[in-house]
Amino acid sequence: MQAIEFKVKWGMLVDLDKCTGCGACTVACRAENNLPPEADAANKLRTNDWMNIYELSNKKPFPDHEIAYLPRPCMQCGHPSCSTVCPVVATTKDEEGGIVSQVYPRCIGCRYCMAACPYHSRYFNWFDPIWPEGMEKVLTPYASARPRGVVEKCTFCHHRFMAAKERARMNDEDPTKMAEDAYIPACGEICPTGAIKFGDLHNPEHEVSKMAATKFAFRVLEKLGTDPQVYYYSKREWVRKLGDNYLKNEKGGDHV
Amino acid sequence: MGIDRRSFISLVAGGVVGSTFTPVIWKTLDDVSIWTQNWPWIPTLQYGEEQKVPALCKLGSDAYGIKIKTIAGRPVAAEGNPDHPLSLGGICPLGAASVHLMYSPSRVKNPKLKDGSSFKDISWDEAEEMLAEKIKAAGSSVAMISGDETGSVTDVLAGLVGKAGSDKSFLMPSESAPAAAALAMLGGDGQVGYDIENANYVLMLGADALGSWGNVARNGKAFSASREKGVKYIYVGPAQNGTTAVADSWIPCAAGTEPVLAMGLAAVIAESGRDRSFWPGFAAFAKFVKAAYPLDKVAEITGVSAETIKGLAGELVRAGRPLVLTAAEAGQGLGAFELAAGMSLNMLLERVNTVGGVRILPWAPSVVEAAADKKTLLASDVVAYLSAVADGGAEAPAVLMVHGANPAYALPNLTKAQAAIDKAGFVVSFSSFMDETAAMADLIMPDSYAFERLDDAYSPYGSGQPNYTVAAPVIKPVFDTKPAGDVILAVAAKADLDLGFESFEDVVKAKAEALGADFDEMVEGAAWVSEEFPAQDLALWTTPLEELSVAAADGKTLALAPVLRLKIGSAKIAIPPFNTNAIRFDEMLGNDMYVLMNAATAKNLGLNKDDAIKLAGAGGECKARLRIFEGVMNDTVVAPLGFGRTAWDEFSRGKGDNVYKLLAADIEAQTGLSRFATARVTVSKA
Amino acid sequence: MAKCKSCVVLPFLVGLVASIVLGWWGFPKVLYSQKTQPIRFDHVVHVEDQAMACEDCHAYREDGSFAGYPTNANCVGCHEDVQGEDPDEARYVAEYVQQEKEVEWLIYQKQPDNVYFSHIAHKDFDCTSCHPDVANMSTPPVYYENRLSGYSKDTMKMWQCERCHAENGASNACFVCHK
Which of B445, B471, B519, C40 has its Cα between 20 and 30 A from that of B404? Predict the structure, then answer.
């Protein structure tokens, strides 16, 4: 499939040398996007985790063991595996900025996209959302409440992109040329160590572009050709090498 | 003419053909499909004007300004406050969950009176009258436990107790108590703080600065800003955690023995380099550390090699502005002498009472006359008191009031604490939530939640400068609750104990005035910050130090390293409804919590991954599952605090087990403070 | 009865016409229930007599979002107390202003939760391109509610947005309008 080239390419860069795995991003994302509360979140095949944190390990025994934490939103792939398989076009990558859309009323819940996504970024609403009495009063107006039977995923807080454009228009600015800090997803905004950076990958002035161009930046499962718009950054080689599955004899292999 | 079959069919056919020229079929299909998507139990969104309102989050041990996004006045999400010095835009996982906690199913919605084994609803008037009567009848046999170290409600509650003629006012265990006592051992007087932003070498001895220690959001921002400047962050502790994931290195050190390492470092540094003999107290100090903490002994106790100790000492000396943070990983459990070890090391490095070092903040002004001041409160140990009450060594209070604290869950010597609460004549909880203490209480007078009341906080522990934050309510109480500050003042008045204030707002205004802060500006969101630090006359060995007692390794038990992970709650709050998903698959197995040990340790015990195991300590037992994690020292088991809730709601109840049960405290003779950071446990198959 | 062609054609035509009439006239009558606004808001009084402009109540907020239906905060500037003789105004003051309760206005063109519409992106169009001109109505229009779907009859459908976007060169990407 030919990927459309957009003028703006919203990208995220997570500095794994600053991520402490605290989980504030996971919680803030749920609050911002009206994810349903889950009393039993132990079965990870049934939970809904737009922003999910993985613990990485260099797999060496004590005392040489090292850890890192990797927050994983939707990669908003340049060549998405998900939108190409959707039978009803409930998900596409057709908007300026490159955020892969997910339209809930159109989704028929076949979960083909979930099977296709190599990052497990997509989640299915196995259950209707149950809000404890009164808690529905803290729903934000930013994302619709999804019924059971539809798939959902991180949208880079797309509503904040829309809100940033409204603010730009209100101030008589060009909504296609916004300042670097005009639009940032909830996770990036609240991260206590500032590990999550966000901006336009096509704008060389933006921090994400600058950091993504360094040799310390990498993407997860790049070899699959998904062209993700989420970069990770670490000065530790073992962390970078975990980004993809290397064969032992491959350059980059033998890190474990 | 009659209508025969042919005409009828023709009529119907005409009807059908005609209907295809009308919208009926298409519209009905369209509307029915929409109907299938709009089930009434799926909530609809409410729109309105969006605003960001300043608020104060005290759900953990920190107290920092955040911002609440409101839509048409309803809070919907919490985020950091870029203008607040302790947030700088960041928020911790508890703060991020704070809005949804307002509607947690465990919220107590109105005053409740114990009725057999459950509660019955009563009115506020009845509750206030009842408590006032009980207090009048109790005379001076009243006591209070508060978990709010920074707020004026504690002043009011302590005032009530003081006015009644009692000295039984306590704070929950924290880092502040041993830190203040340790500072006094150096001749200092004030609240201990740390200027992390301006240090260039931060040695965290057990202080999980980026995870749960001190001002977590602020520490994160300081850490982040320092990366470009090449500042080193070294974490010393028994296990790897979020802080070690980003720090420059991890030095494995046996649980609770980090202060011993501080002494070892002090011994090396005291020997070397410049002439400090003219420093008051230095000679005695140097003699002590050299004799009591030679390198090989420190290496044996801590597990840190002599070479590493020497290397660290060298780095500390060479760094221009080193700063040593001493703490227990669990945020509580060290005694004063342990903190004094770390404080003395900072003194030796000349980093006390200076930029980039330990800062000594003035105590908060006392505005409620009869209230015990903060220094007195910190010097009184609640664990010692409750244990004495349970054992019969101290008289059980006729009235015990608990505010912002959960002593029936979050204390070492837990069975004694629970027994003491049981023994107390009349237990009143002001908790907003049905926590374990409220479940045991005779009367619950629910405090309004954080965003429903006026709240204040003075310099939470760790603050590098004196600061004061006041937050106005964001929303009117959503249930029949009242702010505890006002309730306590009303009850005091009814009990003929005049505290000198009509309303809680007057107390906060008085405090602001005493500090020279502008109440109205602060209510708009501007925190008060000061650069004034009281003059100090510090000297090493003002109080002679003593050898720290450490529970010895015995080949049968493992060292217990309890850890605090804010995402699953704190000493005050259980797992918030939105945080269940933040618990990773390697942290819980079904409803069991994982405890961590490395493969070598597991092998010695004959245990395998995912085994159901039992940890048994002096205080009690816990059930868990085993996770093999190489980021733990040998013969050590890491166990998370915050699980094993028996009250609260379905989000936290029945998950994991309460590790506080394993903690047995001994009382530090010289200060009366409880110590429980070097617990040992036996681990076996369940 | 003898076979007669008109006995087939006539019923067919009758059925045809009847179903067309029922479909175009009867069906909407059955499908839509009629509702009235809780308060009979009189635009004429405000626009003509009080010489208010549209933007006095229907304005953009600072962040660029559009305050469609004003809240009590807007109205109490004048209606803290009863201003005129209209019984509906008196009811508004008594039941809403004094009880600090917002009026639950029926929103004629309310979009479902999964739709995102930005007024400011369309500010170059006249209000009447999409909305009826209520400025000269003394009584708010009748609110027709679809009994099946629950939405207002006047809620615009997706094809209306798409067509105008296509005609004006605006993007028809899904996320431009959905959330």
Answer: B519
Last residue of a domain, one of B480, B501, B522: B501
B24: containing domain = 5-37
Q: Do B147 and B274 share a domain, yes or no? A: no
Q: Which of A150, A162, A190, A214 to mutate to test the interface with B (most CBs of B within 10 A)?
A: A190
Neighbouring C-beta atoms of residue B187, cutoff 10 Å: 17
Q: Cβ C63–A143 below 8 Å, yes or no?
A: no
Residue-level length of chain A = 256
Q: What is the CATH number of the domain that holds B394?
A: 3.40.50.740
Percent of chain B clearing pLDDT 90 (strictly above): 92
Please check whether residues B194 and B311 belong to one and the same domain.
Answer: yes
Percent of chain B with pLDDT over 70: 100
> Rounded to a whole number, what is the distance in Å from the CA of C81 to chain A's nearest CA?
31
Considering only CA atoms, give the Rg of chain A. 18
* DSSP state for residue C129 in the 8-state scheme: G
User: Is B202 found in the same domain as B147?
Assistant: no
ipTM at complex level: 0.94
In a domain, B480, yes or no: no
The identity of residue C86, as a single letter, is D
* C109/A115 Cα distance (integer angstroms): 38
pLDDT in tens, A57-110: 999 999 999 999 999 999 999 999 999 999 999 999 999 999 999 999 999 999
| CB nearest to A128's CB, from B41, B210, B244 | B41
Residue B440: inside a domain: yes
Tell me the HSE value of B544 on the side-chain side, using a 13 A CA sphere. Answer: 7
CA B200/CA B183 separation, integer angstroms? 23
A 98-137 near B (Cβ less than 8 A)? 105, 128-129, 131-137
Query: What's the rounded Cα separation, in Å, for the pair A186 and B552?
Result: 48
**Distance (Å) of CA A161 to CA A157, A187, C173:** 7, 14, 14
Q: Beta-carbon neighbour count of residue B526 at 10 Å?
A: 17
Whose structure tokens read 């989704």? A107
Q: Does B330 share its domain with B443?
A: no
Residues 6+ apart with CB under 8 A from B351: B199, B321, B322, B323, B324, B357, B358
The answer to whether the CB of B116 falls within 8 A of the CB of B124 is: no
Q: Are residues B225 and B357 in the same domain?
A: yes
Residues B200 and B267 in one domain: yes
B334 and B417 housed in the same domain: no
Identify the DSSP state of C152.
B
Residue B655: closest C-alpha in chain A? A40
Answer for the pair B164, B472: CB distance below 8 angstroms, yes or no: no
3-state secondary structure of B462: strand
Burial of B203 (0-12, 13-18, 19+ CB in 10 A): buried
The reported pTM is 0.94
Number of domains in chain B: 4
Report whether B210 contacts B219 (CB < 8 A). yes
Q: Do A158 and C179 touch (CB under 8 A)?
A: yes
Nearest to C121 by CA among B45, A157, A162, A144: A162
- Which conformational region is residue A101 in: left (phi greater than 0), alpha (psi within -120 to 50 degrees), or beta? beta
B566 and B631 within one domain: yes
Cα–Cα distance list, B73 to A35, C64, C97 (Å): 21, 18, 16
CATH number (domain holding residue B321)? 3.40.228.10
CB contact set of C56 (below 8 Å; sequence gap of 6+): none
* pLDDT in the model for residue B637: 97
B325-337 pLDDT per residue, tens:
999 988 899 999 9
Q: Which domains does chain A have, with CATH numbers?
A: 10-241 (3.30.70.20)
- Taking an 8 Å cut-off on Cβ atoms, the answer to whether B35 and C61 are in contact is no
Q: Do A94 and C173 touch (CB under 8 A)?
A: yes
Q: Report the candidate in B545, B642, B643 with the shortest Cα–Cα distance to residue B330.
A: B642
H or E stretch covering C157: none
